[in-house]
Amino acid sequence: MQGLAGVAACGTVSGTGAAAPPKPYMPVFFNAAEWNFLLAACDRLIPADANGPGALALNVPRFIDQQMTTPYAQGAQWYMAAPFVQGPDNLGYQLPYPPRDLYRHGIAGMNAHATTRHAKPFAALAPDVQDDLLRAAEGGRLVFGDVPSAAFFDQLLANVMEGAFSDPIHGGNTGLGGWAMLGFPGARADFMDWVDRYGAHYPLGSVSITGETA
Amino acid sequence: MSDDARTLKPVDVVVVGGGWAGSIMAKEMTEAGRTVVMLERGPDRSTAGEGAYPASIDELEGNFRYKLFQDLSKNTVTIRNNANQTALPYRRMAAFLPGEGVGGAGLHWSGVHFRMPPDDLRLRSRVIEKYGAKFIPEGMNLQDYGVTYEELEPFFDKAEKVFGTSGEAYKVNGQVVGQGNVFSPSRSDHFPLPPLKDVYTAHLFRKAAAEVGFHPYSLPAANASQQYTNPYGVQMGPCNFCGYCSGYACYMYSKASPNVNILPVLRRHPLFELRANCHVLKVERDSTGTRATGVTYTDAEGKVVTQPAEMVILTAFQFHNVRLMLLSGIGKPYDPVKNEGVVGRNFVYQNVTTSVVWLDPKVETNQYIGAGGGGVAFDDFNSENFDHGPLGFVGGSPVWVNQAGVKAIAGAHSGGPPGTPRWGSAWKAGMIDTYRHSLRIDAHGANMAYRDVYLDLDPTWKDAYGQPLLRMTFDWKDNDIRMNRYVVDRIGDVAKAMGARNVHLTRREFGKPFDTRQYQTTHLGGGAVMGTDPQTSALNRYMQSWDVHNVFVIGANAFPQGTGYNPTGMVAALAYWAAHHIRTTYLAHPGPLAG
């Protein structure tokens, strides 16, 4: 149910309810099993709560799927020359995998772990069990072949944050909901008349690069 | 040389790197009537292109996809903490963010624009005068620059006028004239523009620092507080505190950049030619090895080309200058075991930690408002402004609120107070509270030079052109950790005076190695330092190679040790200083300027 609920929410632009729901987003990079994981994990990493919308309403999974077709996800900006020698953590990332491969290995690993331990894929588990698994991955306590779980988790979490809080032009932050919860004005980028209004709440809502407002 | 090599028509001067140093040197050499070719390994860039609003106001592209930064896939460095480790490639951008493309990091820097403190320029001499030679810890290579503040002053002044720097002087021609930094030396003139307005957090910091008894001042900022026309005739608009400085081309034409302040004039000069997407492989030398004959580079089509020249001026980023010297055999490479050689010696970083102060939740700190160079600092614990005797460490740290504009993704990543989870509802609550109601205070400290901290060529990994990567051997040392911890405690005093609801003081920890995964600063320095002794410096005091007199090397690579200040103002002044001596002496009498 988690996964299906996620699909519905993810395809909804603002959750106004009355209008017919738009067609759910069809992922380009992720397969069905991966997509279900991504929806479920995003929902735990940024849950909807009293402080604002969650990752699903912000279309974070769509953002991540769209990122996977950019040069970034293929490691085009990373130094990827061999040999790949593992060393102390503080000397940084040394795996031969660009983001796309980290997702492929990481999601398969998370689902395999969930199936072995709980006889269900990640998306079908109860939220508190999902949280435990995510915490285990975050803490590096799982191993997915030669991918330490923390490397996958850090990649996922970084992209989730980007999806929730970047300009909607990239596919996430739907309705500027991420920015609204922070009080971040986005592309307004002109505070000439507010720089010395000390401690006061900025009165204008957020605006995106394409002129969408919230 | 490979078979497909082509040799081009000779020019007077080749400038390697199209950032601040390269643009200044090219401008000066064309003024002197010399033909100049500038080779820039990255693409051509302009404020009208990369800075165009609103597309430029995109945090994902600017700060997370590093649109304007070095392409690490082609060339990076390897890093290790000590000589017993295997250095590993810096595969993803994190700890430092070198630039690339026309304008270099000068296109997308913040804009903090300092003069080097007089005591920092002769730090070894000053420390010995005050505390005795025994005060210098074993293994620390403390040195003087070989140039004084008085000698550099006209060039600091010139750089500020070209950059359109905003600030408030303390002393002009020996007279106290304003509320500037009481520790700063006398100036020959005021800043070209008045200081930027204080953002709220800087305003609170100024008040609290003064209450505690420190001496706050407006950070000198190359972000124009008013409309400005510089001596080259190019115009800047007033900064509107948009918060998109570091990582971005300034759409307001307010932040000084080579692209706005120098290149519009240079590009039209008949003696100047810019070649973008040209990666220099090597400085060529004649059979004696003591004279450069030009450079060999890979052009935009991937062809290997030789450009003969009478003079070669290296103006790439700090560590690229050092690497080019090593790849070209200019100067003796440093050997830390024998403690001999100079190229790669005295590699330094900067010792920055950021503490966080939470204010009353009713108060909005509006951290997204900012100017990259704006803010308020105090220098009571910088340079030799305080008595190090009882403290037992060398070096110091300015302290400041430099709210350059914290945007949404960065805010989300920063999260909540220590102990808050990195995700889930608890993260959300802590992160939103922190974003809306906190402020950040930096201890922006110096990092000293040590015998076992250095640069050399990596034995294993290569760049896209088949040349060895540069290898960094770097770690934090106890002297610098103690300095940081002392200064951060003073931040605690100021935070208390601000009426903080909560304070997290971030101190460097003993035994915790340099972590390449955390952004710290791009203020790397040293590795090919200036000085008066060819045994301990690669360059003489005019930035000229001791060994190959028609090679000049301009950049933070010349700093013998780190400084608490941002390096760009000093690099620009050193460029004008070197250019002055090239124009007044070297061009008429080519040869060593110091002996």
TrEMBL record, chain B:
Start and end residues of each FAD-dependent oxidoreductase 2 FAD-binding domain: 12-57
PANTHER family: LONG-CHAIN-ALCOHOL OXIDASE
Protein keywords: FAD, Flavoprotein, Oxidoreductase
Native source organism of the sequence: Komagataeibacter xylinus (Gluconacetobacter xylinus)
Domain Glucose-methanol-choline oxidoreductase N-terminal: 221-349
Family membership noted in the UniProt record: Belongs to the GMC oxidoreductase family.
GO terms, molecular function: flavin adenine dinucleotide binding; oxidoreductase activity, acting on CH-OH group of donors
Keyword Protein biosynthesis: no
Record domain Glucose-methanol-choline oxidoreductase C-terminal: where: 456-575
Stated name of the protein: GMC family oxidoreductase
Pfam name, any one: GMC_oxred_C
Keyword Flavoprotein: yes
